[in-house]
Design a protein that fits this description.
- There is one protein chain.
- The chain has seven helices and eleven strands.
- With 283 residues, the chain is an alpha+beta fold.
- It has an eleven-stranded mixed β-sheet.
- Strand 8 and strand 9 form a beta hairpin.
- The chain is globular.
Length: 283
Amino acid sequence: SLESLRRYISQAVVKSEQDYWLVVQVHEQVVGYSQVEYWHEEDGVWVYFIGGWVLPEWRGKSIGTVMLRWGEALARQSAATQHPNERFEFAANASSTEEDATALLQNEGYYVGFTTLELRFDLSTTLPVTPSLADGIEVRPISPEHYPQLIDSIIECYHNAFPGNRFRTTFDRVAYFTEKLSKPSHDPKLCYVAWDGNRIAGQVILVKENDEVYVDQVSVRPAWRRKGLARALLIRALRDVLERGEKTIWLDTYAEYQTRAMDLYQSLGFHIIKEFPRYRKTA
């Protein structure tokens, strides 16, 4: 929203980050802006993301190219000052419907590092019968006392999701998931957790926000994969929310996940709404 964007920009000014923003004006009219953000990833690379937006009527006039090259120059300067002698690369985004932005990035030497996919569940789908769980595994209710185990399970599930932990941002994952599980939108009744004795084997977590259900987690620990566990949990979760009358169920995932999660989602009635390629370029 406009208000959230105002807050975001105000916070950037408070943090003295305004040097990482560029505004393009023609006379008194703002026709575009660009922003540079950076973060560190677990493979040791610093990533400088360059985002740029131009009003439709001002596109095709090289404004986007100028902004992108400004961002790259700023990133080089920042990397040399803040992270000397460390590896860094550029990043930028363009969705599957942003043809001009895609062409610009490709012309400037960017390649697709990975692709985020947004999927929506087709309500006309007839779900298969919920499969039985493997011997010794059962779904049990979860409560706040189990959250540390649940967080450990989620973190383990995504380790090496990309080879060598590529594209994996460095941050405090325990604190991040602890905060998520403490939010009002989190409902333990929408957590479908499979236990093997006292250990969590995998989990499917849904979040209800407004009139939509978001599939936040579908993950299984490596030792329990290829046993149909994710499929069984997801079918159970979908059945429950459909019986409650939910009409919009969606999720996002990465096309390149080694677990081939897309095969599972499409087999159960999810279809791709939009693709969001995430571009990279060697600095």
